[in-house]
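Sequence in, structure out. Go.
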Amino acid sequence: MPKMRAAQVGRPGGNFEIVEREIPQPGNDQVRIKVQACGICHSDSLVKEGHWPGLQYPRVPGHEVVGVVDALGPGVTQWKVGQRVGVGWHGGHCGHCDNCRAGDFFACKVALQVTGISFDGGYAQYMVAPSVAVALVPDELTPVEAAPLMCAGITTYNALRNSGARPGDLVAVLGLGGLGHLGVQYAVKMGFRTVGIARGDDKGPLAQKLGAHHYINSQTQDPAAELQKLGGAKAILATVTSGQAMSAVQSGLGPNGTLMVIGAADNLTVSPLVLITGKRSIKGWYSGTAVDSQDTLGFSVLTGVRSMNETYPFDRVSEAYIRMMSGKARFRVVLTMG
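Output:
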């Protein structure tokens, strides 16, 4: 049988092992993808460190996948060999449970799958995915440009367009890292009066480069008070991993404002008085399905939003993962398959 190379995790907390495997064959309603690039996301640590309950090992991580359709399983009619496609976090759903029938595919009760967790992901030369999880990639995006948009991109874009904010509204992005640097770009391109919030004066030029209209240094300024001086935020996109930082901005929301939480943080401290007096809310947001990925990619092409990436060849997967986990990458890390 033909062979491929894959970077697998053999056990919780184990190192990446580059192994040779048989190229997988697509089953019913599955698509095989020849991987060209795969982003390394902080959520991949759930596999690496064994934090996802019931995860079966060995497992190949990776849910920011871009490549070319290589083979089709029985029953696949919507895809053709040679098409450029991607796969994100959402790896499939049953389509017929009550939640799926209501359109809440992220809450599928029967067959919810996560790419790189429920099945092997994109840290490999080939992968197989359910056809429903596959998104079309525009020709205008290179594989490296498109890969981070399959998770970081869709998560920020989808949360913003579902935040309730309208063009002209004040919208803040908390954190200017891997998620936040995309969030600011999307907010600006959506027509929001955009505020970047981060620690340190050195992030100010970055916020300006990304298009933000205002910058707040949370080390020397009270971000909630500064947002209120600007009229109060209709939405705050919280991309950081600090519950304390999220808690500190909630009173910066204007009336009917929403704190959109997309960063996997520790616990928040919530003030009922802040929520009640301004009819404010705190809402978590799931990344989205394949069609949301296509919307994200299309909007990015239309408006020129691009991820800032550091690229690593597949053989340096361990180094690339450490770089991402260090928090020093500017701003996403992408594996290329060559």
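Check: The chain has a mean pLDDT of 97. The CA atoms of residues 188 and 194 lie 6 Å apart.
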